[in-house]
Write a sequence for this structure.
């Protein structure tokens, strides 16, 4: 029987915690033997939860790499702009790495990391967890089977809910490319463009063009007489859909888990929350229309593939609810569905039937179970360790080389949006 793989967590944030907690459910698979984080409270939390000895707790990558290697692998959940800077020394030290997406914030960084992985012969698996969702896995199986023929066009859309958008991408740390290292397309939608590239595997994208803007979250869109901070000087706070009090206190289920953690509070009372929202220096107290947003709130992309097929992707923030949808047109039929509905429909041309087509519904709800990532967070952890052990792993497994296609799409789409024109890819 294989011994559990020893793992170090680097960057003890929300994503790392999701992966790390799988060790408590599967202690035979892996254990958390070390932690690196600049925040002492997060280190304390990790120590308590995973019984990590004090001498395996570090405040920087340098502290970790200065001691002899004591584990097999690392789960790297640092902020986007730190991924390459933290992963390169880990690879050189001999660690395999499960790396949160995006694995790099520009093409230069991506090339540096790929070269380092090749030189060290260490594994970097990228956390494209949506590949593991039953919804997309079943779609991939149908495409591979040829049931709807050759793909002519694939359209994907992501609607970002108004409450997710406001907490993460307007008031939160992902609103600033300086702070998180990436724009909206890379931080939020690299999942989706990776899925498109994966479903079209073997058919490389040839060119990409993109348009987008900050349409909604700017001063001229603010309600009349709106203040600069919801609870401090705004007379229209009670009627505003982006009221910080309504979103973060009165309806605490709406994507607010990280607000209080990022504000230095783990178990805040309502009084603590009101204190934060009445603090003009708290980013979460600000009016969403006066945050000087530096990223787009909607964007569309057109992709040409090498065989003449095309793909389109659109992201729209401030929607009534979060939703990912897909519609694939093939030479023999179509696939159309909604990720949140946990089902899709397969349509096939049937010329001799009254309707001219036949259809069937593929329901994945029994496997997806309403999980936001379709249980992909759990599946990717198990696949990573299967890969390291030389055991059978799934077709969803995402190495750096495999992930590069989707990342390159994002980098060049952003270049097209900023500079105009079509960008050639391969």
């Amino acid at each position: 029987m294989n011994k559990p793989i020893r793992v170090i967590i680097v960057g003890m944030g929300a994503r790392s915690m999701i992966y790390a907690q799988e060790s408590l459910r599967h202690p035979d698979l892996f254990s958390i033997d070390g932690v690196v984080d600049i925040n002492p409270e997060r280190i304390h939390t990790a120590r308590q939860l995973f019984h990590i000895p004090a001498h395996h707790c570090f405040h920087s990558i340098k502290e970790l790499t200065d001691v002899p290697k004591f584990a097999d692998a690392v789960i790297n959940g640092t902020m986007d702009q730190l991924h390459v800077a933290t992963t390169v020394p880990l690879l050189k030290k001999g660690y395999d790495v499960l790396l949160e997406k995006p694995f790099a914030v520009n093409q230069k960084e991506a090339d540096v990391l790929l070269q380092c992985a090749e030189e060290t012969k260490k594994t970097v698996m990228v956390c494209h967890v949506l590949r593991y969702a039953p919804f997309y896995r079943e779609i991939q199986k149908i495409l591979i089977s040829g049931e709807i023929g050759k793909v002519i066009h694939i359209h994907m859309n992501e609607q970002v809910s108004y409450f997710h958008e406001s907490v993460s991408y307007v008031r939160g740390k992902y609103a600033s490319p300086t702070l998180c290292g990436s724009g909206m397309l890379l931080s939020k939608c690299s999942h989706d463009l990776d899925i498109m590239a994966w479903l079209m595997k073997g058919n490389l994208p040839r060119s990409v063009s993109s348009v987008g803007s900050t349409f909604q979250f700017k001063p001229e869109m603010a309600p009349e007489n709106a203040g600069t901070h919801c609870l401090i000087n705004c007379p229209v706070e009670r009627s505003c859909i982006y009221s910080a009090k309504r979103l973060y206190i009165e309806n605490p289920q709406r994507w607010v888990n990280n607000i209080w953690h990022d504000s230095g509070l783990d178990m805040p009372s309502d009084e603590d929350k009101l204190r934060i929202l009445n603090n003009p220096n708290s980013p979460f107290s600000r009016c969403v229309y006066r945050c000087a947003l530096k990223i787009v709130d909607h964007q569309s992309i057109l992709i040409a593939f090498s065989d003449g097929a095309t793909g389109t992707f659109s992201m729209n923030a401030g929607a009534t609810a979060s939703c990912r949808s897909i519609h694939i047109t093939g030479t023999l039929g179509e696939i159309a569905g909604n990720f949140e509905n946990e089902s899709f429909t397969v349509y096939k041309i049937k010329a001799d039937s009254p309707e001219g087509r036949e259809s069937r519904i593929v329901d994945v709800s029994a496997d997806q179970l309403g999980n936001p990532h379709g249980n992909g967070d759990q599946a990717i952890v198990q696949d990573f360790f299967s890969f390291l052990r030389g055991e059978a792993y799934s077709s969803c497994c995402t190495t750096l080389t495999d992930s590069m296609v989707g990342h390159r799409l994002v980098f060049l789409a952003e270049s097209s949006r900023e500079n105009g024109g079509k960008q050639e890819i391969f």
